[in-house]
TrEMBL record, chain A:
InterPro entries: 2Fe-2S-bd, 2Fe-2S-bd_dom_sf, 2Fe-2S_ferredoxin-like_sf, 2Fe-2S_ferredoxin-type, Beta-grasp_dom_sf, Diverse_Oxidoreductases. Residues 2-78 form the 2Fe-2S ferredoxin-type domain. One of its GO terms (molecular function) is metal ion binding. This is Carbon monoxide dehydrogenase. The keyword Iron applies. The keyword Calcium does not apply. SUPFAM superfamilies: 2Fe-2S ferredoxin-like, CO dehydrogenase ISP C-domain like. It comes from Actibacterium pelagium. Keywords: 2Fe-2S, Iron, Iron-sulfur, Metal-binding, Oxidoreductase.
Automatic annotation (TrEMBL), chain B:
Residues 21-139 form the Aldehyde oxidase/xanthine dehydrogenase a/b hammerhead domain. One of its GO terms (molecular function) is iron ion binding. The keyword Oxidoreductase applies. The gene is coxL. This is Carbon monoxide dehydrogenase. It comes from the Bacteria. Keywords: Molybdenum, Oxidoreductase.
Length: 161, 788
């Protein structure tokens, strides 16, 4: 067992880990931050996406030890300081971009990363960027719509009705 | 102006806030004190006799608390099939025992034969790998036709791989044969409805807990129906009295059918929790999910459509082989029969229909209901053969369907396969589809595509499904071993806010938002003061859970009935308070009012009075304001729809792009349009996935060759088209109080034939003599169809 220290959602944390402990395991079981999910064992589904030093990372693909000293942001850190939903979170609720909620942490974190790189993505760019995030509930339509809306773009053409 | 409260409004989903802030509570998120961890040892061969299992090395490993094998569960019951089917000759189906852990034989790759419980998940996993098993491997039974003629059996004690040979309706058989023999035209099509893996994004997980002080058990599990799971464990498997077992299904990350069923892992964690007197947790890896979640579909069908030269239908006849896998999962015998054969008349006035289904055991994961459950298989067969027939006769695809539609003045309409459709309007749906897909403009768009070197096709489909399952009286006659009612309790608290305990379970459907809309509408109060409670067998009266698009039609009706009782009692209390007759009291906008006067008392005051019953006429009215209702529907509901899409095929590569998809559904009345649209879009995602990408494939040795997301083609965002969802043609269900029909499965039912019809249409437009391509329509299959 070794000790690891990092900053998670702005708070300094540390804990005992095995060498094989994954970042996602440390977040969920070590810190009780269960907002980050594990949906597969091949780094495909994206339910575990978090930000490490500002970059979107699949937390099931990174050892906790490799995050020593890093700044980590999880879904729990995405709300506004007053606790209200952040822009992307609010857009997901407004446009029904989630159903069961299991893929949602990864979708929100990937969306945040996309909008940082590309503040006004096209629909095709959004669909392409979400290559690493699987959703089984929504058919993706409303996820794409929510991200478009979060970037301040008109989504009236994506109205189902 | 759109409503912002009650029925017809689209309030933001209240469950979203916790999901969007990481405060959801899924089973694996629950961490009880002193938890231990289970890991299963699973067979890596498909069929074999267990000669010996040596657990001694595993037992000696660090942290190991207990090791279980099939031997430990010989005395307990099997996990049963919920529906008894008889063969055409009257013999009952073969129903081999499905044990908690494999005993004597392993029957599919992933079949669990042992389980380790240890202090940590890693120790449990390490020890499970140290269990030594000696298996005498037998040839795998995989192909269904070969399974029926072969001499290797999945269950040796049965001596056949056929579970049953079912005819529906047997009395139709001769007349249908005769009609087909004498028909001016018969179209025949052989097709495969491909096996799909459900892939709810949350893998299954279970936590068993046991309190030796009270002899009470608690199971947290990823279930669509916690009461049914409790019933199965209590009455069939472990024999734990129902009053000593609580089953909690907390937030559940999707189900699509795969979490209806009771699985052996749930029994194991409970038995282990008792033995160790501490919580035992198990969470499936995605690999385990691929190997052990009940899969869907997997039918091989020959369908014949007989008609006259003008395309008037005379008969449908089908022969289907339906895979049930290695064991009978709980609804596996109902899905290919009464959820499939009864729908084989579609939306059409066809006088003769006969359906034959042979179910086949194979050394593969069990197959059971997956979103749509039997109805997608029926729709696919019917709607594909109609397209082929139209091509053969040179009749327009929409015209041939309209020509045979059941007309609005024919309801109630009894089909030759035993259902009585209560209401619908298929021409109206087709009218809307033609408009929203701009069918009239298709040829111009086809010409544009051709100018770009692409083949454009259009696909049309008309579906019907039987939802709101189901009338217990009817399904009981048909072999169901369970009733299919639902229940709700409305508890008005003294301060006027309300808890509604519902038997339905929400795992993405938004019940926490929708059910309060119904109660708010009826009571005339703000829905924000109403919460629902679901998923905990100790808190809700009873429930049959959520599947078959039944939550609102069945449980929602129970909510209505319970709320009506609340209103009736509230009127009595108000009458007492207002010194009037309760017959004169009306409830309007949350006020109990003496009709024709300005005397009234608010709902909140009545609630308070119910719990502070000073000067109460106790001989007439009990204190308290809480009512329960069980609702058993009079009939199925019959959602229907017209779907259409346009595709472009690249003739060089066979790649298919779906350019536009339009779904026009009749769901009856709609309580929350936003959620209904989301449900349809999600169903379309899965149906398009089945049509374009997905197939669970076993090789001849019984290995699932695509058991991970590296290999199994899940639909991704860039595989999905924009979707137009229209539900403007609702015809209210005639027999439930809300007039609702159910919307959860429609997309998955209506979309596969729509896509395949469009691709075949595109290829035929370029002169390719293609009549059918089996799903999924991968570029290689489409290219091969074009290039022989």
């Amino acid at each position: 067992m070794t000790n690891v220290s990092m900053t998670v959602n702005g708070k300094a944390v540390s804990g005992e880990i095995e060498g094989r402990t994954l970042l996602v395991t440390f977040l969920r079981e070590g810190l009780g931050l269960t907002g980050t999910h594990v949906g597969c064992d091949t780094s495909q589904c994206g339910a575990c996406v978090v930000h490490v030093n500002g970059e979107a990372v699949k937390a099931c693909t990174m050892f906790a030890a490799d995050a020593e000293g890093a700044e980590v942001t999880t879904l729990e850190g995405m709300a506004n300081p007053d606790g209200s939903l952040g822009t992307i979170q609010a857009a997901f609720q407004e446009h029904h971009g989630l159903q069961c909620g299991f893929c949602t942490p990864g979708m929100v974190m990937s969306a945040a990363s996309l909008l940082k790189e590309n503040p006004k993505p096209s629909e095709a760019e959004i669909r392409d960027y979400l290559e690493g995030n699987l959703c089984r509930c929504t058919g993706y339509h409303n996820i794409v719509k929510a991200i478009m809306a979060a970037s301040g773009q008109d989504v009236s053409s994506m109205a189902a009705e | 102006m759109p409503k912002d409260n009650g029925i017809g409004a689209s309030p933001k989903r209240r469950e979203d806030v916790r999901f969007l802030t990481g405060r959801g509570k899924y089973t694996d998120d629950i961490q009880l004190a002193n938890t231990s961890y289970a890991c299963f040892a699973r067979s890596d061969v498909a069929n074999g006799v267990i000669k010996s299992i040596d657990t001694s090395a595993a037992e000696a490993m660090p942290g190991v608390l207990a090791v279980f094998t099939g031997e430990d569960f010989v005395e307990v019951g099997g996990n049963p099939a919920g529906w008894a089917i008889s063969s055409r000759d009257g013999t009952p189906m073969h129903e081999p025992k499905r044990p908690v852990l494999a005993h004597g034989k392993v029957r599919h790759v992933g079949d669990a034969y042992a389980a380790v419980v240890a202090e940590t998940p890693e120790q449990a996993r390490d020890a499970a790998e140290a269990i030594e098993i000696d298996i005498e491997e037998q040839p795998a039974v995989i192909d269904m036709a070969a399974a029926l003629s072969g001499s290797t059996f999945v269950h040796d004690e049965i001596g056949t791989n056929q579970c049953f040979d079912w005819g529906w309706i047997e009395d139709n058989r001769e007349a249908t044969d005769e009609a087909i023999k004498n028909a001016p035209h018969v179209t025949t099509l052989e097709l495969i409805n491909n096996r799909v893996v459900p892939n709810a994004m949350e893998p299954r997980a279970s936590i068993g807990d046991y309190d030796p002080g009270t002899d009470e058990y608690k199971l947290y599990t990823t279930s669509q129906n916690p009461h049914l799971t409790r019933l199965l464990i209590s009455a069939f498997v472990l024999g734990i009295p129902e009053n000593k077992l609580t089953v909690v299904a907390p937030d559940v990350g999707g189900g699509f059918g795969s979490k209806i069923y009771h699985y052996g892992e749930e029994a194991l964690v409970l038995a282990a929790a008792k033995k160790l007197a501490r919580p035992v947790k198990w969470t499936a890896s995605r690999s385990e999910a691929f190997l052990t979640d009940a899969h869907g579909r997997d039918h091989v069908t020959k369908i014949e459509l007989a008609c006259d030269k003008e395309g008037n239908f005379i008969a449908f006849r089908t022969e289907t082989l339906a895979n049930v896998g290695a064991y009978l999962s709980n609804f596996s015998t109902a899905t290919p029969t009464f959820l499939h054969g009864t729908l084989m008349a579609g939306t059409y006035t066809v006088p003769n229909v006969y359906v034959n289904v042979k179910t086949v055991f194979t050394n593969t994961a069990p197959v059971d209901a997956y979103r749509g459950a039997g109805r997608p298989e029926a729709t696919y067969s019917i709607e594909r053969v109609i397209d082929k027939c139209a091509d053969e006769l040179g009749i327009d695809k929409i015209e041939i369907r309209r020509k045979n539609f059941i007309q609005p003045d024919q309801y109630p309409y009894t089909t030759p396969v035993g259902l009585s459709y209560d209401i619908g309007n298929y021409d109206a749906l087709m009218d809307t589809l033609e408009r929203r897909l701009d069918v009239a403009g298709f040829e111009a768009r086809r010409a544009e595509s051709a100018a770009n070197g692409k083949l454009r096709g259009i696909g049309i489909n008309s579906y019907i499904e039987a939802c709101g399952i189901a009338p217990s009286n009817l399904v009981g006659q048909l072999g169901s071993r369970v009733g299919l009612y639902d229940a709700a309790t409305v508890r008005v608290n003294a301060t006027g806010n309300i808890s509604v305990m519902v038997g339905a379970h929400s795992h993405g459907q938004g019940h926490e938002t929708v059910f309060p809309q119904v109660v708010a509408e009826m009571l005339g109060i703000d829905e924000a003061s109403i919460d629902i409670v679901h998923g905990d067998s100790s808190k809700i009266p009873f429930g049959m859970g959520t599947y078959g698009s039944r939550s609102l039609a069945v449980c929602g009706s129970a909510v209505v009935r319970a709320t009506e009782k609340i209103i009736n009692k509230g009127k009595k209390i108000a009458a007492h308070m207002l010194e009037a007759s309760d017959a004169d009291i009306e409830l309007v906008d949350g006020q109990f009012t003496v009709a024709g006067t300005d005397k009234s008392v608010g709902f909140g005051d009545v609630a308070l009075k119910a719990y502070i019953p000073h000067e109460f006429p106790l001989e007439d009215i009990e204190p308290g304001l809480e009512e329960t209702a069980f609702y058993d529907p009079a009939n199925f509901t019959y959602p229907s729809g017209a779907y259409g899409c346009e595709v472009e095929v690249d003739p060089e590569t066979g790649k298919v792009d779906i350019l536009k998809f339009v779904a026009c559904d009749d769901f009856g009345n709609v309580v929350n349009p936003m959620i209904v649209e989301g449900q349809v879009q999600g169903g379309l995602g899965q149906g398009i996935g089945q049509a374009m990408l997905e197939v669970g494939t076993y090789d001849a040795d019984g290995q699932l060759t695509n058991g991970s997301y590296m290999d199994y083609a899940m639909p991704r965002a860039d595989d999905m088209p924009q979707m137009v969802v229209d539900h403007s043609n609702g015809t209210a269900c005639t027999h439930n109080p809300l007039g609702v029909k159910g919307c959860g499965e429609a997309g998955a039912i209506g979309s596969p034939p729509t896509v395949v019809n469009a691709v075949v249409n595109a290829l035929r437009s370029a002169g390719h003599d293609v009549t059918h391509i089996d799903m999924p329509l991968t570029p290689s299959r489409v290219w091969a169809a074009m290039n022989g």
